[in-house]
Amino acid sequence: MDFETGYTMTIGGRPASGDGTIDVVNPADGDVFAQAPRATAADLDAAVVAARAAFPAWRDTPIVERRRILSEAAQRIGEHAEALGRLFTREQGRPLPLAIQEVKGGAWWLRATTKLDLPVEVTEDSETRRIEVHHVPLGVVCAIVPWNFPVLLAMWKIAPALLAGNTMVLKPSPFTPLCMLKIGELLRGLVPDGVLNIVTGGDELGPMMTSHPGFAKISFTGSTATGKRVMESAAKDLKRVTLELGGNDAAIVMPDIDLDAVVEQIFHGAFYNSAQVCIATKRMYIHEDIYDALRDRLHEIARRVTVGDGAAPGTDYGPIQNKPQHDRVMALIDEAKASGLTLLQGKEVPAKGYFVPITIVDNPPEDAHVVTEEAFGPILPLLKFRDIDDVIARANDSDYGLGGAVWSRDINKAVEIARRMDTGTIWINQNLQNTPFTPFAGAKQSGIGVENGAAGLLEFTQPRTIFIPKAAIA
Ligand code: NAD
């Protein structure tokens, strides 16, 4: 299969080209290198009609057979990981080995999720009656994903939704449409027609989808601002929603850490994917006893690593994925400079393309924008603390509540701190970890609902409770 050209949507198992195209830009040079189809309202209708038509048969397919098909789909995606990875780097910017890793990881996630089950629960089994709770699929799911993990986050939706017996219309970000278009093409003929439809388009397509009456549920990953619009639109006909939104994760670094052992991981937890990660460390609270030492070590790494074209060997960090995001991050850096904050930056970055130097901000005030806003780019504020109650209060003082991290050699103490953090996930002496068997959910304005794990699977179902008498009425 050709991964370089011929990008088509998948609607009802067949290719569809839309009306017109959207440009796809390589963020490493800012040049347009491909076009993706622009779906019309009629294309979206056709995708919803195909998904609705496919639903009864897919719902009634035994789960073991759905498992088999999804595992084969995972296998097929994994077999094309190198070609998809190259395409991923061109559209997303991430260094090639890590791009291939995401495709392989996405395929693995799809297969692993099929190990989950939807058993019938029995809440009472007495002499007079048995009460069974069945978890039945909802219908057609609208899935909307962002550009920072375009394959993995799509799999987080496809795997549980289809395993549970739903069908789907999925929309990748207009900034990164190509890998998912090719994955749609790869799976034609394997996943039954209409079960998984992939559509692409510009900014108009998302709102068209969320207001479309043919969907039973919206599963959305993106910013908090957009999530609020999605929820508003879904309210019109009470579509179910799962919203995985933004974060401003705090890490708390205790004075007893073994600096040599963890400094690389701490850096990685903040800057992986050029910090375009919802669960990246975005505020780092460091105990005053080790503040200077850790700051200097982080700066040292920032000066050592290479930011550049993800297709070039030896690149550690790629560009910001798109121009609007690049401009937002640069504006935050410029504002920090203008307000007299101390910036510790890494190596110079290429002038062409959407590059931002790795930037550490040395102990800014708590109310600086670099602290209060989700930068979603490589600008990390380091903040000093002395008292544990004070730092927990500062970490929790955010409308976001996605994740957080505690770094300490005293695991019990770290767990105690973790239990007081007002977020959906807290990592101890690690970061950025998730598994298909573990619920992932944002607290506060970081989201509504759950992805992954048994709880995430249940979000794609509706309980159907059946009261069964033990004897017929005489
Ligand atoms: P975004 O909200 O701009 O876009 C996300 C998706 O929504 C894209 O596909 C976009 O085309 C679509 N969209 C835009 N406007 C829409 C509308 N009105 N109705 C429906 N769909 C619409 O987010 P982004 O810039 O692509 O991604 C970055 C954000 O995503 C960050 O805030 C990040 O923290 C968040 N994120 C969250 C998670 C998580 O699991 N919690 C994971 C990754 C990213």
Secondary-structure blueprint:
Blueprint (H helix, E strand, L loop, with lengths): L8 E3 L2 E3 L4 E6 L4 E7 L3 H20 L2 H17 L1 H12 L3 H18 L7 E5 L3 E9 L2 E5 L7 H12 L3 E5 L6 H10 L8 E3 L6 H6 L6 E5 L2 H12 L4 E5 L4 E5 L5 H13 L9 E7 L3 H14 L18 H16 L4 E3 L13 E4 L6 H4 L6 E7 L2 H9 L3 E2 L2 E4 L3 H9 L7 E2 L14 E2 L2 E2 L4 H6 L2 E9 L5
Parallel strand pairs: 7-8, 7-10, 8-9, 10-11, 12-13, 12-18, 13-16, 15-16, 18-19
Antiparallel strand pairs: 1-2, 3-4, 5-6, 6-22, 11-21, 14-15, 17-20
Helix pairs in contact: 2-4, 3-4, 3-6, 4-5, 9-10
Bound molecules: nicotinamide-adenine-dinucleotide.
Nicotinamide-adenine-dinucleotide (NAD) binds next to helix 7 and helix 8.
GO molecular function, one term: oxidoreductase activity, acting on the aldehyde or oxo group of donors, NAD or NADP as acceptor
Family: Belongs to the aldehyde dehydrogenase family.
Protein name: Aldehyde dehydrogenase family protein
* Poorly predicted residue ranges: none
The domain count comes to: 2
Average residue pLDDT: 98
CATH homolog superfamily of the largest domain: Aldehyde Dehydrogenase, Chain A, domain 1
CATH class placement of the largest domain: Alpha Beta
Radius of gyration, rounded?
A: 23 Å
How does CATH name the architecture of the largest domain?
Answer: 3-Layer(aba) Sandwich
Spatial order of the strands forming the largest sheet: 14-15-16-13-12-18-19
Number of strands: 22
Q: β content, as a range?
A: 15-25%
Task: Note the overall shape.
Answer: globular
The main pleated sheet reads as:
7 strands, mixed
End-to-end distance, in Å? 66 Å
Examine the coordinates and then state which fold CATH places here, giving the name of the CATH topology of the largest domain: Aldehyde Dehydrogenase, Chain A, domain 1
Q: Helical segment tally?
A: 15
